[in-house]
Design the sequence.
């Protein structure tokens, strides 16, 4: 899609990959980035860095009323970035069930509800002849879980399936749906994960470059690209590789 001159909204933009995606979109020439978070005070550094092009938006993706209010506030949108996420780690028998519910709520159900809420604005952009797109931040372990990522991987697998369904459903409406499948990223959310972690800035830059190149399935770091190559050659081999 055409990033330069576009208007984007990034959920979970107050930290980690979300903040880096917002900055990278600005660097690529986005005219406006709506930075969404539950507490807009946490967005102050991003707003200050944005030079007037970052608009803070109060948005709790798990609260339907908050989602509706944010969708009513954002009246012009070309790109919706569903980045907000929750991560609970643990094996399939010992992972916290409350965390499992939270991961499904944030990573799948909230993604669905947020997309539905902002869809009319994206459709208006497409009708006006502008490039309109949705970017879902998924995870490479949506394709196969590692033992300690059981709960998180299941919620991201649901997000992966939804991304595929949305892509088919929205294509006739002129809206392109992208899925990004990073591996481990060096952020606060992954602090408890023992794995190789990519720099969030590099991951964001590769995702935005892939958007500009109209790539719909994005593997934005070396680890995810290697795992994706295994998956596309033999899905069961990826399962065995991550299980080991």
Sequence:
């Amino acid at each position: 899609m055409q990033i330069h001159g576009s208007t984007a909204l990034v959920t979970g933009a107050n930290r980690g990959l979300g903040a880096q995606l917002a900055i990278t979109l600005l660097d690529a020439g986005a005219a406006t980035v709506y930075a969404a978070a539950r507490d807009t005070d946490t967005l102050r550094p991003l707003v200050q860095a944005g030079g007037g092009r970052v608009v803070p938006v109060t948005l709790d993706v798990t609260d339907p009323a908050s989602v509706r209010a944010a969708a009513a506030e954002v009246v012009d949108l070309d790109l919706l970035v569903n980045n907000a996420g929750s991560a609970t780690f643990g094996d399939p028998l010992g992972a916290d069930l409350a965390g499992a519910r939270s991961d499904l709520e944030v990573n799948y159900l909230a993604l669905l509800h947020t997309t539905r809420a902002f869809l009319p604005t994206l459709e208006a952009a497409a009708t006006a002849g502008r490039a309109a797109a949705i970017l879902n931040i998924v995870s490479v372990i949506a394709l196969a879980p590692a033992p300690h990522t059981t709960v998180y991987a299941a919620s991201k697998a649901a997000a992966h399936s939804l991304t595929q369904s949305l892509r088919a459903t929205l294509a006739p409406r002129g809206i392109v749906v992208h899925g990004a499948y990073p591996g481990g990223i060096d952020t606060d959310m992954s602090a408890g994960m023992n794995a190789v972690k990519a720099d969030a800035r590099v991951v964001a830059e590769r995702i935005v470059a892939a958007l500009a190149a109209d790539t719909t399935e994005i593997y934005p770091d070396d680890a995810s690209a290697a795992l994706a190559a295994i998956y596309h050659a033999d899905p069961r081999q990826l399962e065995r590789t991550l299980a080991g």
Remarks:
- The two ends are 38 Å apart (CA to CA).
- The CA atoms of residues 80 and 202 lie 20 Å apart.
- The chain has eight helices and seven strands.
- The first strand starts at residue 7 and ends at 11.
